[in-house]
Design a protein that fits this description.
Number of domains: 3
Shape: rod-shaped
Number of strands: 29
Distance between the termini: 86 Å
CATH topology of the largest domain: Immunoglobulin-like
Strand order of the largest sheet: 1-2-4-7-6
Number of helices: 0
């Protein structure tokens, strides 16, 4: 039998001789899965063949074994998160006691990363990881990684609550261009050694999606004057957006009404093209909005819709930015 914590005492053999004896327990600190079982072994160095010993505990005992100088008891269905069992032996009329501490554990049920939004370059965001239904938390380590790089590690030695807990861990990140497409993972380690097993669990990976660099504002090209009932081409273009121009999403409106349009790309430039017209004269606003991830940029142009004046000439000047 293994020897553990011990105490010493004095006993009398055959009512005359005295000597020192020890009482030991193994394991001294037991880590048992919640609802599980464990053998507790008690032993003594007492040489008196009549020495008697055993185990006192509030836990359920279902089996026991004994021999000269030792006794072993099986404890089952252990659901107390922290408990104790006391080994005792009586030797020469002197009784000595030593205790075993018993803790139960629960491996991390799940490790979950909260969903991440589409991120804007240079803006701060929180990465939040949850480790669910784990105990004891004092033996837990949580690590947040970007690829193979550790971003944050947290331990909980000062945690005081007994029993299973849902543990959140948060780390702030300010995404840069090189973060786009990187994977974030969260890892939980419950290390119960040397008194128990070692567990590891990980979350599913979450991909970082980083957007929002507009080197130039969207540019509109169209006629500034349109005759009533006449259709005119309107173009809106944007160049150099991050991560790619193919991520750009357009909306075009004229006089507050959405326009149908087509989008073409060439190199790092995307262009939306539609037609504007109005059956009535007056000022109208042409608006183009370009969205990349969570970031939007808009540009506007005022257009005069005119009708032919009696006896006058038509106004047909065109003005705009360079053709895309």
């Amino acid at each position: 039998l293994l020897l553990g914590r011990s105490v010493t005492g004095v006993f009398a053999v055959s009512g005359a001789a005295q000597g020192l004896f020890k009482v030991s327990v193994s394991p001294e600190a037991a880590m048992v899965e919640h609802g599980g079982s464990v053998w507790i072994n008690c032993s003594t160095t007492c040489q008196d063949p009549g020495a008697r010993g055993g185990l006192e505990t509030s836990l359920t005992k279902t089996d026991s074994k004994s021999g000269p100088g030792w006794a072993a008891v099986l404890l089952v269905g252990i659901t107390e998160w922290v408990s104790a069992a006391q080994c005792y032996f009586t030797c020469g009329g002197d009784t000595k006691v030593t205790a075993a501490n018993i803790s139960t554990y629960r491996p991390p049920e799940r490790v979950v990363l909260e969903p991440l939004p589409e991120m804007e370059l240079g803006r701060a965001y929180n990465l939040t990881c949850w480790v669910l239904n784990v105990a004891p938390v004092t033996h837990l380590t949580v690590t947040i990684r970007r690829g193979a790089q550790t971003l944050h590690m947290e331990t909980f030695q000062n945690h005081t609550r007994i029993g299973p807990n849902n543990i959140p861990v948060t780390h702030e990140i300010t995404p840069q261009r090189w973060d786009h497409g990187q994977e974030i993972t969260c890892h939980a380690t419950l290390d119960l050694t040397p008194h128990g097993p070692h567990f590891e669990n990980s979350s599913s990976a979450v991909e970082l999606k980083v957007y929002g660099e507009f080197p130039h504002e969207p540019q509109l090209l169209t006629s500034l004057y349109i005759e009533v009932g006449t259709r005119a081409t309107a173009r809106c273009g944007v160049a150099g957006v991050f991560p790619t121009v193919g991520e750009a999403r357009f909306t075009l409106s004229f006089g507050g009404e959405s326009l149908n349009f087509t989008v073409t790309t060439s190199g790092d430039t995307a262009t939306a093209q539609g037609e504007v017209w109005s059956p009535f004269p007056g000022q109208r606003e042409l608006k183009c909005t370009v969205t990349v991830g969570p970031v939007s940029r808009s540009t506007r142009q005022s257009i005069l819709v005119y009708s032919e004046c009696l006896g006058g000439s038509r106004l047909r000047p065109e003005q705009g930015l360079p053709r895309f």
